[in-house]
Design brief:
alpha/beta; four-stranded mixed β-sheet; two-stranded antiparallel ribbon; 25% helix; globular
């Protein structure tokens, strides 16, 4: 229900929530209309154990019994997607054991083959080979899915990087709540990509690789930076990069004047907003396919964010003002009585310090009556009083 608010350096809380799925991802997947062949998830869908050999599972993992009985083993959003998308295959991990199941979706609606594998350890069932049919006339290359790209573009306004709860539109809303794209909308996205949906081979190294001999790199301060591949993808699609939104929100909350746009310097900061409303995204032509070349990524600066705290907002009074009081300054003598008292006491203890709130010049030591000592009554005192005294 929350947005993608986590950022480095992670706390004990955010390092566990950063990999949680969000309702936006589930909402987007439910907009797909085409058949899905393979679905991958970390958690098992809840209720999947009722479609396989649960007895064998409990013999291997007996501590799963309570969660299975309460239908709490796995992910409820994954279960929703399982019955909504009806993929041919669903592969999961997380529970470190092999489990197979077949989920039937009803007459003429097909079924889903579910498989989870064990840890990659000796004598553990961690490997299984499956043959999935594909068009042998097409090359084995990675390509974007046009319908999915269009859904991400149409739902960009639902993206949130705030910690607060976010809600997806529903049938009762006065706005669009079904984002299954039309042919016209998909044609617009295809044009933005220059008619080529092949995933480009434009990898760019942004950090130094780990080396056990380089101790300096192991203790380097953590910094937040954008990925050139993600920047290019978001620019072509006309959507916001969640990490870029986090950088902008951080700059506005802490040091809004510390950002500088220097595209010619590697590792510089940029405040360029990659939003769908930008004019650069509206004038996309077929020439955009040239952006897939390796030279296009080198022109993109690597944004880095140095985690630093703003200066404290502390205003001290001027030395010439009446409110200025140094810590070493002694209190002023506001009356003759305080002066005589200070002089008499100073002869016995020269290191004493006297603080007073105010002094009345008309008062004298003889006229100051002694205040009676307050007596506090214990609550419910009658409960503690002996019977002899009552």
């Amino acid at each position: 229900m929350r947005g993608h608010y986590e950022r480095v350096p992670y706390t004990e809380d955010t390092k566990r929530s950063v990999y949680h799925i969000r309702n936006l991802e589930v909402f987007r997947l439910k907009q797909l209309s085409q058949k899905v062949d393979v679905m991958l998830s970390h958690d098992w869908p809840t209720g999947i154990t009722s479609h396989g050999d649960v007895g064998q599972l409990l013999r291997y993992k007996p501590f799963f019994k309570k969660d299975i009985e309460e239908n709490a083993l796995g992910s409820r959003p994954a279960e929703e997607l399982l019955h909504h998308m009806k993929p041919a295959y669903w592969f999961s991990a997380h529970l470190h054991c092999k489990f197979a199941a077949i989920v039937s979706h009803g007459p003429r609606k097909g079924f889903t083959k579910f498989l989870a594998l064990d840890k990659c350890l000796p004598k553990r069932k961690f490997l299984q080979i499956l043959d999935i049919e594909h068009d042998k006339n097409k090359p084995l290359t990675l390509s974007y899915d046009l319908e999915w790209l269009t859904i991400v573009h149409l739902t960009n306004h639902l993206l949130s990087v705030k910690r607060g709860l976010t809600y997806m539109p529903g049938p009762s809303e006065n706005e669009r709540w079904i984002f299954t794209p039309s042919e016209k909308e998909k044609a617009h996205i295809l044009k933005r990509f220059g008619g080529d949906l092949t995933v480009p081979l434009n990898f760019t190294r942004t950090v130094e690789p780990y080396s056990p001999d380089n101790l300096a790199s192991q203790y380097a301060p953590v910094s937040l930076q954008l990925n050139p591949q993600t920047m290019l993808f978001c620019e072509l699609l006309g959507v916001d990069d969640p990490l870029d939104l986090l950088l902008q929100s951080t700059s506005q909350d802490s040091t809004p004047n510390s950002w500088a746009h220097t595209p010619d310097t590697p590792g510089s900061l940029s405040r360029t907003s990659l939003s769908a409303d930008d004019s650069s995204f509206l004038d996309t032509s077929l020439e955009d396919s040239s952006r897939y070349t390796g030279s296009s990524t080198r022109s993109l600066p690597i944004k880095r964010f140095s985690m630093s705290l703003p200066l404290p907002k502390l205003s001290l009074p001027d030395e010439n003002s009446e409110d200025f009081l140094p810590l070493t300054q002694e209190p002023q003598e506001s009356s003759q009585e305080f002066k005589s008292l200070h002089e008499s006491e100073d002869s016995t203890n020269t290191n004493s310090t006297y603080l007073t709130a105010s002094t009345n010049t008309s008062q004298t030591e003889e006229s100051e009556p002694s205040q009676p000592r307050k007596k506090f009554k214990r609550r419910n005192q009658e409960f503690y009083t002996s019977e002899e005294t009552t």
